[in-house]
Specification:
MetI-like fold; cell membrane; transmembrane helix
């Protein structure tokens, strides 16, 4: 075996080891502590429980504060589905216009798109604006916030992918009498499936796991999302670590399943524009 192959295998093994330590070990720590009772979990040891309490902990988490976790799951699913649908439609439309309709405003628009990725959100002015619009502490207001904060990333992905679609396709559709909306929704949008899947999966996981935005813009127990239910089992003086880890395990499973099933599509959508453009 040559030295080059040895370095190749060594790099691969090292990468797998780092990934295991960074991602798998914390997840296993969550699992083993979610199976323990309260006294044993409070020690925070990475050991298998002397007696498993999976179903007891699961029932306690689901029933806590009048089944708050179920309400939170409903809120998070509605928030994620509506916000991601808006990101796909608006991101694709903006990316299409920027790529196909160059104008003197493109430089300013590109700057604003990049600024949306770089500049941190202004929380207090945003709360004032939501209060003025009557959208503070509402799910509709948080949906608009999630769309606004994630739109720049979606626009960049869609624009890069649209650059790989031949302009002759647009011209042929226009010659056949297609209007702007027909051209976009019936011709262009179906071709954006690879990058749309990437946006759907990446943004769904990000929005579903979002903690800070619901904390700032959607306070209140009835408005809780899944991440905010973590407050149910921790306090300054007494934290039920077994229930806390069980809650974390429950809300981690949906994004994990999504990544496992759509991992290949995510990579293809992220690299398509860079490879073909």
């Amino acid at each position: 075996m040559t030295a080059r192959k040895l370095r190749y295998y060594a790099t691969g093994i090292l990468s797998l080891a780092i990934a295991f330590v960074v991602f798998v070990v914390p997840f296993l720590f969550i699992v083993v502590n979610a199976l323990k009772d309260k006294p044993e979990a409070s020690r925070l040891h990475f050991t298998w429980p002397t007696e498993t309490h999976f179903w007891d902990n699961l029932a306690a988490v689901v029933q806590a504060r009048d089944y708050m976790l179920i309400t939170a799951f409903v809120n998070s699913i509605v928030l994620t589905v509506v916000a991601v649908a808006g990101l796909v439609v608006f991101g694709a439309m903006v990316g299409f216009v920027l790529q196909r309709r160059p104008s003197r405003w493109n430089g300013l628009i590109n700057f604003m798109v990049l600024a949306g990725l770089i500049m941190p959100p202004a929380v207090v002015p945003t709360i004032w604006l939501l209060q003025w619009l009557g959208l503070f502490k509402t799910l509709s207001g948080l949906i608009l916030i999630e769309i606004a904060y994630s739109l720049s990333f979606s626009v960049l992905l869609f624009r890069a992918f649209i650059a790989t679609i031949p302009r002759e396709l647009d011209e042929a559709a226009i010659l056949e009498g297609a209007g702007p909306f027909t051209l976009f929704f019936r011709i262009v949008l179906p071709l954006l499936k690879p990058v749309a899947v990437t946006v759907i999966v990446v943004q769904s996981v990000a929005i579903f796991n979002d903690f800070t935005n619901p904390l700032y813009y959607l306070p209140g127990a009835k408005n809780a999302t899944v991440q905010l239910t973590l407050f149910n089992f921790q306090s300054m003086f007494n934290t039920s670590y077994n229930l806390l880890f069980m809650n974390i395990l429950i809300i981690t499973i949906p994004p994990l399943i999504m990544f496992l099933f759509f991992n290949r599509q995510i990579v293809e959508g992220m690299t398509a524009g860079a490879v073909k453009g």
